[in-house]
Design brief:
Chain A: Keywords: Signal. The complex is a heterodimer of chains A (about 475) and B (about 110). With about 475 residues, chain A is mainly beta. Chain A contains 4 helices and 35 strands. The model of chain B has no long low-confidence stretch (mean pLDDT about 85). Classes of the chains: A mainly beta (about 475), B mainly alpha (about 110).
């Protein structure tokens, strides 16, 4: 009996280390995008339909005062594809260009407020911005010079109490610039880049030796410390001055213009921002990957309630827990990068699937739609093997989260014996949902589906243009 | 030895079943609801909705309850151990109830 139990355990666990990654984007060929709403499964009493297709890297939606839907196309995708971002009006399934931006995407989010659109420009080439766009298409920058040229970008915005709230992603995976950033493409463009703390920090003096990717000489090594440029070592007790704008933070400026203020920091990639019915600000955080000089393993994406002035722990905490708990199996121990913590780290509202890339968020405010005061979150889906290994595709769906209990449930998923994007399942369902938005009535939930983004076996991103779709979920009961 | 192969065969058949379940909003007992909350806290991120992700699927796992409890307590492979000071005996009991309830949910159409 003991032998059987032992063999059973071996069978069940059959060595994680030897199993290959089966990420959702790890597909061969270039599939055409098919659309079939019957391939998406929802709870009883809801139906889904596609309302626009052929969009180029769509990322977010907004509605004007008449309830007309608008969508933004990012203008940039991982895989170093640069295009001009656009604001499009959707009428009867057709799109009309309202405004065209510069090749400084990705445009990641949009809000409509008092007859103007506010757009978060990621800033991959020249830094992040918050743009104001008139209905006539005139673009002006409300905020410029945000960190956005690294791994993560400028996100948001949402408007609350006369302020534009927006977020800046971290420059790196876990605080240290490394060869993974050269693979992203930006390190050679901007070798001086590194993370910027929002307040003064004191370093523990942790350094990381890696291949020197900025020179051609074989065998060259680089030693890099936290919050410093690639190839610059740190010393214990070294103070890095904090400043605004910083990376990995939620910031705000008055809608009418004025001084930028820090709301919260110590976040890795705060992507989706939304205000709940009771006026609280929530943020989804894309958690650390198994890559670079300081890989973290098994870190779930997080839904946070944002408390003014709080430090959320990055790069020394994830999910509100110390990084030592996220050591790669068989890898070196993880030590804090900061000598002193910057405050008590809050507890997450919910911890979501590892590598799910939990992105855009909105709240149901309508009893008719159901799930009132629940958060709906678009899960873009894993980017394995670049982010780390997964045993099956993760994400590629919409989940709803009860923010009181932290319980997550599937809301919109692709049918099939296995999960994953439609391109992998050979169906016409969801590909990579990147954001969700209720219309002003609250009766319909719109899903922005980025389209196909393949991953090669060596971890490169290959987006397929013009495969984005807008889906609309309605109540049938 | 014969019994092992029988078990192996049954296990393989079981694991060939889908781990995926319908997006449901069924009501559950207080124990199951509590188990769900604890599952969300400790298990969900690697086994989302009982499906495979970073870790293997649980909804179609043929392992009996005592094996699963053993694995939770002692960890195995890449899975960390969760001792009684992290997940109490009562919480683990409720997590197991929740996992059973997930198994019983309607399967997704293929």
């Amino acid at each position: 009996m003991k032998l059987i139990m032992l063999l059973w355990l071996v069978l069940l666990c059959s060595c994680y280390g030897t199993r290959q990654s089966k990420g959702g984007g790890q597909i061969s060929g270039t599939p055409a995008r098919e659309i079939n709403s019957a391939d998406v499964v929802l709870p009883e009493g809801y139906r889904i339909e596609a309302v626009a297709s052929g969009l180029n890297f769509p990322t977010a939606m907004a509605f004007d005062e008449e309830g007309t839907p608008y969508v933004i196309e990012a203008g940039y995708s991982y895989g170093e594809v640069f295009r001009k971002p656009r604001l499009l009006k959707i009428t009867g399934g057709k799109t009309e260009t309202v405004a065209t931006g510069e090749e400084n995407g990705p445009w990641t989010g949009i809000a409509f407020h008092k007859n103007n659109f506010y757009i978060a420009e990621g800033g991959q080439k020249e830094g992040g911005k918050i743009l104001k766009v008139t209905p006539g298409g005139e673009i002006t920058a409300v905020v410029e010079g945000l960190p956005g040229m690294g791994d993560h970008h400028t996100n948001g915005p949402v408007i609350r109490d006369g302020y534009i709230y927006f977020a800046t992603g971290s420059v790196t995976n876990s605080g240290v610039v490394g060869p993974d950033n050269a693979e992203f493409g930006w390190l050679k463009r901007h070798p001086e880049l590194h993370d910027i703390p929002c307040e003064d920090i004191t370093l523990a003096g942790e350094n990381f030796e890696t291949e020197q990717v900025l020179t051609d000489a074989q065998g060259d090594k680089a030693v890099t410390g936290a919050y410093l440029p690639f190839g610059t070592a740190s010393t214990a007790g070294q103070v890095i001055k904090g400043k605004l704008p910083c990376s990995g933070a939620v910031l705000r400026v008055p809608v009418s213009g004025g001084k930028m203020e820090l709301v919260a920091w110590g976040l890795r990639n705060p992507y989706g921002l939304a205000v709940s019915g009771d006026g609280k600000l929530y943020v989804t955080e894309n958690a650390a990957d198994v890559r670079g000089s300081r890989p973290l393993w098994g870190v779930g994406d997080v839904l946070w309630e944002i408390r003014p002035g709080a430090w959320y722990g990055w790069p020394d905490y994830s999910e509100g827990k110390p990084v030592r708990l996220f050591k790669t199996p068989g890898g070196p121990a993880l030590k804090p990068l900061l000598q002193e913590e910057k405050g008590e780290v809050p507890k997450p509202v919910a911890v979501l699937a590892v590598h799910s890339s939990s992105n855009g968020i909105d709240f149901s405010s309508n009893g008719n739609f159901g799930f009132e005061n629940h958060a709906f979150i678009a899960q873009f889906g894993d980017m394995a093997p670049n982010v780390g290994k997964v045993l099956s595709p993760v994400g590629f769906k919409i989940v709803n989260v009860d923010v009181q209990s932290g319980a997550a449930k599937d809301f919109a998923v692709n049918r099939g014996k296995k999960g994953g994007p439609a391109s992998r399942l050979h169906t016409g369902g969801l590909e990579r949902p990147v954001s969700v938005k209720f219309d002003p009535s609250g009766d319909h939930l719109y899903i922005v589906d980025f389209g196909i983004l393949k991953m090669t076996e060596d971890g490169k991103s290959v987006p397929v243009e013009n495969t984005g779709v807008i889906w609309k979920v309605s109540v049938t009961r | 030895m014969k019994i092992f192969f029988v078990i192996l065969l049954v296990s393989c058949c079981w694991m060939a079943c889908t781990a995926r379940r319908m997006p449901a909003s069924s009501q559950a007992s207080a124990e199951v609801e509590h188990g769900r909350d604890k599952y969300m806290q400790y298990c969900q991120k690697c086994h989302p909705m009982g499906e495979s992700g970073l870790g293997p699927a649980l909804n179609n796992s043929p392992a009996p309850g005592f094996v699963k409890r053993f694995q939770v307590r002692h960890g195995l492979g890449a899975m960390p151990a969760f001792k009684k000071d992290v997940i109490s005996k009562a919480d683990l009991h409720d997590i197991m109830r929740y996992m059973k309830s997930m198994k019983r949910e309607e399967k997704l159409p293929s």
